[in-house]
Amino acid sequence: MNRHYMPEDPIRSLRIMVVEDQPQTRIWIADVLRQMGIREVLAANDGSDALDMIQSNPRGIDLIICDWAMPRMNGMDLLTAVRAIRPDLPFIMETGHGTKDHVLAARAQGVDAFIVKPYSAAQLEVRIRTLAKNIRNRSTGAP
């Protein structure tokens, strides 16, 4: 029997944190990630919970998907805190308000990608795969 070597999809090994205060949306995102083959999905109800998790294990997360508007600590505040701890940690900001001002504010704080609600599983996957490629390039030193 002729077997062809198929390398494992590199996104499968990512550890992704979903920070979303709406339970239905958080569950949907986690389901999409699992359907993509991602094995480790961490969930936080808001930025404050996420920050506690990140501070306790800053290298244990490969990518964050975070809602902008949440109680206690919003996505922009979390992004600012994350940049102080892990400037290289890929961060996708999701929002229902995709105005130019929102995008510019998030870019100024160092967001890596922006996604406007409602979005599809395919749109999320494109952003994750693009950022995953950047993660691999950082770790290998490739451009």
Structural class: alpha/beta
Which residues sit in consecutive blocks of at least 5 with pLDDT less than 50? none
Radius of gyration from the alpha-carbon trace, in angstroms: 15 Å
Q: In the CATH scheme, what's the topology name of the domain at 16-106 and 114-119?
A: Rossmann fold
Helix content: 40-55%
Going across the biggest sheet, name each strand in turn.
2-1-3-4-5
* Helix segment tally: 5
Q: State mean pLDDT (0 to 100 scale).
A: 89
Net shape: globular
Strand content: 15-25%
CATH first level of the domain at 16-106 and 114-119: which class?
Answer: Alpha Beta
Largest sheet: 5 strands, parallel
Order of helices and strands: EHEHEHEHEH
Q: CATH homologous superfamily of the domain at 16-106 and 114-119 - what is it?
A: Response regulator
CATH architecture of the domain at 16-106 and 114-119: 3-Layer(aba) Sandwich
First and last CA, distance: 39 Å
DSSP summary, beta strand count:
5
Quick structural summary:
The chain has 143 residues and is of the alpha/beta class. The chain has five helices and five strands, in the order βαβαβαβαβα. It has helices at 23-35, 47-56, 75-85, 100-108, 121-140; strands at 15-19, 40-44, 63-67, 91-95, 113-116.
